[in-house]
Amino acid sequence: MTQLEICINADDLQQLEANVGAAWQGGASRIELCADMQQQGMTPGLVAIQKARRAFADRPGLLVMVRFRSDDQIQTKAELAAMQQAISQAADAGADGVVLGLLTNQRGLDLPALELLISQAKRLGLQVTFHRAFDAIHDRSQALNQLIELGVDRVLSAGTLWGSDLGVMHGLDLLLQLKIQAAGRIELVVGGGVSLDNLAAVTNRLRPAGQLWSVHSYSAVFSQGKVDPEKVAALVRLCQ
Questions:
Q1: Cα 125 from Cα 123, distance rounded (Å)
Q2: What is the mean pLDDT of the chain?
Q3: pTM of whole model > 0.90?
Q4: What is the pLDDT of residue 164?
Q5: Which of 129, 144, 168, 172 could form a disulfide with 154 if both were Cys (CB 3.0 to 4.6 A apart)?
Q6: Separation between Cα atoms, residue 198 and residue 154, nearest integer Å
Q7: 28 — phi, psi (to 5°)?
Q8: Nearest to residue 144, comparing CAs of 187, 208, 190, 100?
Q9: What was the pLDDT predicted at 75?
Q10: Is 59 exposed, middle or buried (0-12, 13-18, 19+ CB in 10 A)?
Q11: Is the pLDDT confidence value at 209 over 70?
Q12: What SS3 class is residue 76?
């Protein structure tokens, strides 16, 4: 069965546990905890991680965003150190994985920094997802091989250029190519405009290429600005 991952906004601490609990109740396999969704997700605070861990109970799918810059570049040693500290904090707070992504100013992978952070995460027993900065890379086929070599567990993609406002329905051909190329060596997480209206078409297109893939959704599970467990459950059913 294809797993469902729900992105959760950590900014409202009073609503956070209810939203995470709704994702859990609806059957989501994982949550991606982010702050500041206006900037496509930034690192949440310690209290938010702790609240999310409690609300997601014993399900091993709490992923924490580690991201401090919207351009996904490291400019100083202090910024790299901040990411290292955030990874340690996530592990200490009971996270199961981290979500990160670093690029050069030529829109390729920042391999030295990524190798350092991924090695740290693995030492702490954390899974690693490379976020949608992947969709800003010019040669995604080459980048996919590099992420596999680095030991990354998952990569998030819509198959379309990040920032283009085009979602997964415009990226299915590339997503299928990436999934075939991955050949089970890395999990492709399909996200970017996934909804109750299009998920069946997405799964029908991608499922024939194998089973190591999952679905990522954010706003499609909202009702009046809150995570709706019934909408989460509906997405889970479409993944089956």
A1: 5
A2: 95
A3: yes
A4: 84
A5: 129
A6: 22
A7: -60, 140
A8: 187
A9: 87
A10: middle
A11: no
A12: coil
Domain over 3-239 is classified CATH 3.20.20.380: yes
Helical H runs in the chain? 13-26, 46-55, 77-92, 111-123, 140-150, 172-182, 199-206, 229-239
**Amino acid occupying residue 158:** A
Domain ranges of the chain: 3-239
How far, in Å, CA of 126 to CA of 120, rounded?
9
Contact 146, 109 (CB under 8 A): yes
pLDDT tens digits along 41-65 = 999 999 999 999 999 988 999 999 9
**Pick from 111, 36, 24, 29: which is nearest to 69 by CA?**
36
* Distance between CA atoms of residues 47 and 92, nearest Å: 12
Which residues partner with 227 through β-bridges?
Answer: 222
